[in-house]
């Protein structure tokens, strides 16, 4: 577990386990970029190019005060052009949280390598299953989780991975006693959370993971690392840079 960008002097981090992934904090543009030369199968609910897609650039953008939430996808496409990222090979997440406090956790597992990144703001924490005021526009908060898998997974298993990460996020918020203050109950997330799963589908691995629930090796690892990353990102959100 690490939060490399809380150190003001660090702008680039390379995983010891997965050095092919470059993790970069672009301070002047207000985003964290995770990039690779390889193209990944991706499933997400990201505001920019969400759904099922292919990508090798993954951006978590801390939106400015001038942010217009009426069309987040178009706004982010414009930013991708300005940043010089190929808009059709990039996925864009948005947040109002301190992305310098993004937490990374990694593990070498059973026919896979795994890296999980989480950024977290809980100002719009909410408990699912309760009636509340709702809006049609997208307003970022938010807890963003990115899961990178070097291995092979079916699309069904990728959905399962999103479930495992979401359950882990809710467990972390429960243990941290993060409240939905509108109902005075422990929150299960925020109103604008995003989860992204990116899989290399590398031929280095023979088996294809068919499932990613808590009782599978890969699902258990995703749950544990998502829990650790969300817990740390939430716990330190109000702490200063180092």
Give an overview of the whole structure:
The protein is an alpha+beta fold. The protein has a single domain (4-235), classed as L-amino peptidase D-ALA esterase/amidase (4-Layer Sandwich). 22% of the residues lie in helices and 32% in strands. It has three helices and 13 strands; from the N terminus they run ββββαβββββαββββα. The protein has helices at residues 72-83, 155-176, 217-235; strands spanning 12-14, 22-26, 31-44, 51-62, 90-95, 103-109, 112-120, 125-126, 143-150, 179-180, 185-186, 189-190, 194-199. The strands form three sheets. Strands 1, 2, 3, 4, 5, 6, 7, 9 and 13 form a nine-stranded mixed β-sheet that branches. Strands 8-12 form a two-stranded antiparallel ribbon. Strands 10-11 form a two-stranded antiparallel ribbon. Strand 3 and strand 4 form a beta hairpin. Helix 2 (155-176) packs parallel to helix 3 (217-235).
